[in-house]
Amino acid sequence: MAKIHLYKTSATWSKTEKDYWLIGRNSKLSLASKLLLYKVILKPVWTHRIQLWGSASNSNIEILQRFQSKVLRLITCAPWYVPNEVIQRDLHMTTVKDEIANFSEKYKKRLFVHPNNLAVGLLNTARDVRRLKRYHPSDLPTRFRITRV
Q1: Domain tally for the chain?
Q2: What's the domain range around 109?
Q3: Is the separation of the CB atoms in 96 and 121 below 8 Å?
Q4: For 46-102, what is each residue's pLDDT tens digit?
Q5: Least enclosed by CB within 10 Å: which of 52, 118, 125, 148?
Q6: Among candidates 71, 99, 81, 88, which has minimal Cα distance to 15?
Q7: Is residue 149 part of a domain?
Q8: Is residue 148 part of a domain?
């Protein structure tokens, strides 16, 4: 999983470097245009196959969260003292963990109604042997959800 994840971060950074003149601090584009470029060009690179690599370790997922925070800070030209959570909230962007949970939930719903019985069988995890606290793709919709009492 780590090799796939590191490949994704290097691919996203190479796209960011190529598009820096459009989304960087010296760009004349509006904030809405820069955000649209992020959503159309950069975000699909790291959300590709998110249901599979989303079961990676928390440290690998945090690498992508740092990437997203850096790009959003770059787009908004925010100073260093503005927290990343404020930038994400103001731009109405979800965190990487929330994206993983949302994409996985949609994927799980599509599998429930799939006409192929083998695809529906992917949801049956009763026979899986669980070792070393590893996460399975079927765990992703609830892995990052915070349950409040």
Answers
A1: 1
A2: 2-143
A3: no
A4: 888 776 666 777 888 888 899 899 999 999 989 999 999 999 999 999 998 888 888
A5: 148
A6: 71
A7: no
A8: no
